[in-house]
Specification:
9-stranded antiparallel beta sheet, alpha+beta, about 25% strand, 8 helices
């Protein structure tokens, strides 16, 4: 399998968003990949009590390497009751899915992402995926007006979230493969997020050149259980904190280990390390 840029890290570092700390969340999916490659798991989160942060903020520090698709996604931090079991969470997911289906929202997928590192601010992230900003805004407005109160009462404190900790992203480019494009609904996968700064002497053109070479190697190697994507945050990030967000997506732990082994010591790893300085978080 072709080389994969994965750097395991034990410490979660964060960006400041005004006086709030946001998790350096997620990177790109093409439209099809975001719908299918994430597995479209039957796990999703209740929207916040108010409309989430606007998704129209320009972020000049983010490198946009391709024209984004209309796809958009919200990432919602959640805390659970201390005694919640996996079975209880699964039951909540089932009831939430029924509400979403009956409301007829244009939601195209949802996932729960569980951090594989120490994290005190949330227990998991509930991901909501939409075909467009318009679909997203219409669904949130209807949810807040017609479903939120009843759903909050039904939860009875089992889940909680702060409306300030909803972060919205749009896709900007990537590469997929057969296994990643066909992850099963309800299945699991491993996303590894890299929040990167370009080193002195490197720019968006250098990143594009790296990606062209990297993509060619992936295609030549016939990789089937790996993909990568780049995502543009739709909220303000201080200049210099992050130049681009790169997501490695693996079908399972074996695929991640195989990719890591292939990447280590490769020419691509050398080029990557010369070009970037990244923080990595695996879910």
């Amino acid at each position: 399998h072709a080389a994969v840029p994965v750097v395991l890290a034990s410490d979660l570092k964060i960006l400041e968003r005004q006086e709030l700390h946001m998790m350096r969340a997620f990177s790109l999916f093409t439209l099809t990949l975001f719908l299918i490659g994430c597995g479209q798991t039957e796990e999703a989160e209740a929207p916040s009590a108010t409309t989430p942060p606007a998704d129209t903020v320009e972020t000049s520090s983010i490198v946009a390497v391709e024209t984004p698709s209309p796809m958009i996604a919200d990432f919602v931090w959640n805390k659970t009751a201390s005694d919640m079991t996996d079975e209880e969470l699964a039951a909540i997911v089932t009831r939430w899915n029924a509400r979403i289906d009956s409301a007829g929202y244009e939601m195209v997928g949802a996932n729960i992402l569980k951090p594989q590192f120490e994290e005190d601010r949330y227990d998991f992230i509930w991901v909501l995926m939409w075909p467009s900003s318009e679909a997203r805004e219409a669904a949130w407005a209807d949810w807040n007006a017609n479903q939120l109160e009843a759903w909050t009462a039904e939860l009875d404190g089992a889940l909680s979230y702060d409306e300030e900790n909803i972060y919205t992203f749009k896709p900007a480019g990537g590469w997929d493969s057969e296994d990643i494009a066909n992850l099963p609904q309800g299945g699991t996968f491993i996303p590894s997020w890299n929040f990167c700064r370009l080193n002195d002497g490197y720019d968006a053109a250098a990143l594009t050149q790296f990606r062209n070479s990297y993509d060619a190697g992936l295609a030549e190697g016939g990789t089937t259980n790996y993909g990568y994507y780049i995502m543009e945050p739709q909220f303000d990030i201080p200049d210099g904190d992050v130049d681009f967000v790169w997501l490695d997506l693996f079908s399972d732990e074996a695929a991640m280990q195989e990719g890591t082994d292939a990447w280590t010591g490769s020419a691509s790893e050398k080029s990557w390390n010369e070009m970037t300085n990244c923080d990595n978080y695996t879910f």
